[in-house]
Amino acid sequence: MKSNEEIVREAYRLAEGSVLDGPGFRALFTEDGSFHDMPNAQSFRGDEIPLALTGLAGVFPDIHRELLELHAIGEVVAVELRIQGTHLGAFPTPIGAIPPTGNRIDVPTADLWYLRDGKIERFHCYNSANVLLAQIGAGPDFRSAIEAAAGGPAAPTGRG
């Protein structure tokens, strides 16, 4: 039987843009396994799990994960990594898609993998979504947040 570290390394390999094997990735999970994109409050369960891969690869087709540190502690594997790629696809948002910019991303991330009997039971991805958005040119809109909180237009500050 493969070690938990080997299983997790295989999951990363299958999620690479040059490989992108959704069914193979899914097969590494338990029947009721789950994938949680923590910063974006999105969860994928069972056969939905490959959607997390194809969604991200549709925006960053050359997606690559540079593994910096990997620590297997019993049934948990903790990984520090960087998610890298080029913004070549539309990035969906609640108010419409951000068109491709061609910008490169290099996003600090920490992943926790929980395994049971040689299968992934839960995967929690903690990526720096604010860094990703800034790198594709979608910085925060502080003015709108201030206006919404104040119940009207924000006073000019001289800054955008």
UniProtKB/TrEMBL annotation:
GO function terms (MF aspect): isomerase activity
Any Pfam family matching the protein: SnoaL_2
Listed InterPro entries: NTF2-like_dom_sf (IPR032710), SnoaL-like (IPR037401)
Superkingdom in the source lineage: Bacteria
Keywords for the protein's UniProt record, in alphabetical order: Isomerase
Domain SnoaL-like: 21-122
Protein name per the record: Ketosteroid isomerase-like protein
Organism: Pseudosporangium ferrugineum
